[in-house]
Design a protein that fits this description.
globular, Rossmann fold, single chain, 289 residues, alpha/beta, 4-stranded mixed beta sheet
Amino acid sequence: MPTTVHGMIKMIWSHPANRGRRGRALATTVGWQAYKRLVGRPFDLSVYGGMPFRAYRDSSQAGRFLYFGGLPDYEEMTFMERFLRPGDGFIDGGANEGMFTLLAAKLVGPTGAVHAFEAVPTYLDRLRDNVRASQLDWVTVHDVAIGAEPGRVPFVLNGVGSRIRTEADEATGPEVSVRRLDDVLPERPFAMGKLDVEGAEHQALLGATRLMACGEPAVWMVELVDRFLGRYGSSRAQLIGWLDDHGYDLALYDPDRNELTPTSRPSAEGPDVLAVSRRRMAWVRDRLS
C-alpha cells in the first residue's frame, strides 16, 4: 500500500473495483481511518456476498476490502471467480487473515478443498476465526510456513506483514515450523495455488516439485519481485527459468477481455503473474471461455 495520503487517494481512485463508486470508496476510506483512531474496536465486515471478516485496526486486509470495493486484488480475484468451480482444490500459501482463503472457499464450495498456510500466531488466530465464522468445514488451516525443506525458522514481523528472517534483519519474531507442500497436501487435484510469502516463493515451489510434475495445481499465482526474491538467494530470472523447466508458462490475465496473455517478462509493478501448467493450458482457457 502507498505510504502517502496522495498515493493512497490515487490508488483508490484508479482501482478497477471502484469504477462507478469512487466517491463512496473515498468516503469509506476516510471513515475507516477515523474509526481506527477514535474507536478501534474490531467489527465484522461482510465480504463476498455475506461472509463475515473481522476488521481489526491494524489489519491491512480489512482496510483493503474497504478501500477497493470488495475485490482488493481485482485482476487475480476476477480470474478466480471465472476459473474456479465447485469441487476444486485451492492452495493459499501465506494466507494471513484469509482474504484469498474465504474467496476460494466460496467458489469451490463444500465439495472442494482449500488448504491455507499461515505461521504467524496473530494472523493464524484471525484466519481460524474468519474460517470458523462462516463454518467453512472444507478449509484446512495449516499452522506452518512452506519451504524447500522441513524444519524451523525465525520469522520477522514487518508492520502488518511477516516473512522468514534473514541475516540482514535486525527485528525479531517468533520461530515457526516449515513444511514442504509435497509432504503436507493430500493426493487430490488442485486447480489453483496462490503464493504470497514475501520473496520465499522459489523456496515454497521447490517443496512442491512432486505436485508440479503432475501439473498440480494447474495455475499458480505468484509475485515476481527481485528485491524480495533476492532475500532468499533467488531472482525473477531464476524463478521464471525454473518454472519454465518445470512445465509452467507465464501469463497475465485481462479481466476486461477475459483473456490470458502469455508473457516472458511480466512487469514487477503490475499484478501477480499466473504460472500455468503447459500441459493444462487448453483446459484453463476452456474454463475461462
